[in-house]
Automatic annotation (TrEMBL):
The gene is menC. This is o-succinylbenzoate synthase. It comes from Fusibacter ferrireducens. InterPro entries: Enolase-like_C_sf, Enolase-like_N, Enolase_C-like, Mandelate_racemase_C, Mandelate_racemase_N_dom, OSBS/NAAAR. Its cofactor is a divalent metal cation. The keyword Transmembrane helix does not apply.
Length: 367
């Protein structure tokens, strides 16, 4: 594919309700979109970075810089084979996975359009629909959180995940469990704890959590292994897993029993498939994580989650979970039994990007 042009567009889309994690409180989804033009087609990618370096060291400023000054020069006015060969070319760049993934994702979209095959077909997906879970932020009071849980259970969400942080953990879990004794419940600490908190995590065992997501810091594979051996509840790694090598090490030393794959955190779909395959060989179920993305990223997540070892409910909600308006036609919408249909050339279902919606949300562009 000969790459004729690349645009970087920055958009802002307000959340309908503030989303608070252990690291910050989000009011607006500030995002970078990438458009890659080739042979009469446009491939779209969404950079999953945030306005600041909270979830990982990247933010939209650093991602923009890396995309513009290091990634675009690798492909612009060049004939490239596709997303996999692009990833090989990024070997010299340390970190900056979210920036790399944005371009890689756009190249998958371009490949899909040029070959007229769905992403599901290109990567060998097997599911026609995927199950949806909900991720709920830290709320001002327990009552607010219980109301939110009630609301999303009524919509049929298959798993309820609540964010925790030091000081807002055991009491919250206890309160939620008492109110909802039977729901599939998980917690996400976003790396806010250390092994000093081991007694706290032992206390979580009483509440029948399906897993604890990323309790310790991202680099603490060894400490996660110590923690996993001390508690019954499975650990699910998120931030710690950026590559198939991280995955191999985590599995070898028993740092987790489940992995959340975010293609953005792992440089894209190419590496995510390898992580998926290694987990499958080792009986480690995976699910698709989310970054409160807009429609472009959301739709690509749905396709990735069609691979066979994506066995648990995903953080790929309908767009209306976070936003009043989104940037795909149709909007990403959950079905009656709270699943999302995987776009596919077999069922003929596909999403288009809504350029007018992007125009309305645009705050700057670099073209
Ligand atoms: O750790 O999974 C996470 C949102 C922003 C940053 C990190 C995370 C999250 C979520 C929301 O939990 C997932 C979603 O619904 O997109
Ligand atoms: Mg997480």
């Amino acid at each position: 594919m000969f790459i004729e042009r690349v645009d970087i567009i920055r958009v802002n889309n307000p959340f309908t309700h503030p989303f608070e994690t252990s690291f910050t409180k989000f009011l607006v989804r500030d995002a970078l979109l990438i458009k890659i033009y080739s042979e009469g087609h446009v491939g779209y990618g969404e950079c999953k970075a945030f306005f600041g370096p909270f979830y990982c060291p990247e933010d939209n400023g650093t991602s923009h810089h890396i995309i513009k000054n290091f990634l675009i020069p690798l492909i612009l006015h060049k004939d490239i084979e596709g997303p996999e060969s692009f990833i090989e070319q990024t070997w010299f760049i340390k970190g900056n996975n979210l920036a790399i993934a944005a371009v890689e994702n756009a190249l998958w979209d371009l490949k899909s359009k040029i070959e007229n095959k769905s992403l599901k077909t290109l990567i060998g997906g097997v599911y026609d629909e995927v199950k949806v879970g909900v991720s709920l932020g830290i709320e001002p009071t327990l009552k607010d959180l219980l109301n939110k849980i009630d609301h999303y259970l009524a919509e049929g969400y298959h798993r309820t995940k609540i964010k925790i942080k030091p000081g807002r953990d055991l009491e919250v879990i206890k309160g939620v469990r008492e109110a909802f004794p039977d729901i599939v419940l998980t917690v996400d600490a976003n790396s806010a704890y250390s092994l000093k908190d081991i007694e706290l995590f032992k206390a979580f065992d009483e509440y029948n959590l399906a897993y604890i997501e990323q309790p310790l810091r991202e680099n603490d594979l060894i400490d996660h292994s110590v923690l996993q051996k001390a508690i019954e509840t499975p650990i699910c790694l998120d931030e710690s897993i950026e590559s198939v090598e991280d995955t191999r090490q985590a599995i070898e030393i028993g740092s987790c029993k489940i992995i959340n794959i975010k293609s953005s955190r792992c440089r894209g779909i190419t590496e995510s498939i390898k992580i998926h395959d290694l987990c499958m060989e080792n009986d480690i179920p995976v699910w698709c994580g989310g970054m409160t993305e807009l429609g472009i990223g959301r739709v690509q997540n749905i396709s990735l989650a069609s691979l066979p070892n994506f066995k648990l409910a995903h953080d790929i909600a309908g767009s209306n979970r976070y936003f009043k308006e989104d940037i795909t036609i149709p909007e990403v919408k959950i079905s009656k039994d709270c699943t999302l249909i995987v776009p596919d050339d077999v069922n003929g279902f596909k999403y288009e990007v809504d350029e007018d919606a992007i125009d309305k949300m645009m705050v700057s562009r670099d073209i």
